[in-house]
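Supplementary Note 3. Input sequence used for the single-chain structure prediction.
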Amino acid sequence: MTQPENQMPTNDETPDVKQDHQGTMTAKEEAGEFFKSAMIAILVALFIRSFLWEPFNIPSGSMKPTLLVGDYLFVSKGAYGYSRYSFPFGIIPIEGRMNARDPQRGDIVVFKLPSNTSIDYIKRVIGLPGDTVQMKSGRLYINGEMVKREKIGDFDIASDSGEIVKLTQYTETLPGGVKHTIYEESDYGPLDNTPLYTIPEKHFFMMGDNRDHSQDSRVTHAVGAVPFENFVGRADRLFFSTNGTAALMEVWKWPWTVRYDRLFKGLAPERPQDNN
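The predicted structure, written as discrete structure tokens, is reproduced below.
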């Protein structure tokens, strides 16, 4: 028999019609869902950046040969606990540090420049609280003892301005046996003879590995001894590196600009326990 046109649909048909109607959102509802998802993504990103890892890129050659212009790295935010500088714009007014853990000599650290806390610097921890540090004829002295260095070789490299500079690479062994590499252009540069610095409590003496091309704690009016509170975190690992002619998002340039041998390279210095 033919069903009359005005007969109601069967129970089997009704749920499908209702389900289709309920699954359709209005433009206002879609906008609300998008906003909610975006806020969740932003909060997750802020949490990761504030408490776990924050990405940084290297714009200068002051940490050569360890870090190169075009390197991108992750900084561990919890390595030394948290201060107000651990958070974007210093929005959480923490006094001192929470869950503080002492930096180790030889760590590479991102910190807020004491003379202008809107600027991030990255250097190596050389002097600890209570230490004395001095440069004499290009040689580093910590607590009155000359720091050992062993020559690796001489190199011609391009400076940040493109000028070719002749540098000598050394392995430097800090007190406690921590080893890392440094560059020296000479032993008679402007920062190769300094006064004797005594590191105050809760401060650290920071130096770049490119010793004759680094504004660091030797420059007291700009940097000086860095308060522990200014530490943002410890540089742990590279996650990307280009030769400086391509930005992170310029994917089409990657094949010939990425430094593949530097991808995911760890940044911890060699410590005595590493050889056990």
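The chain has a mean pLDDT of 84. The helical segments are 14-22, 27-52, 254-257.
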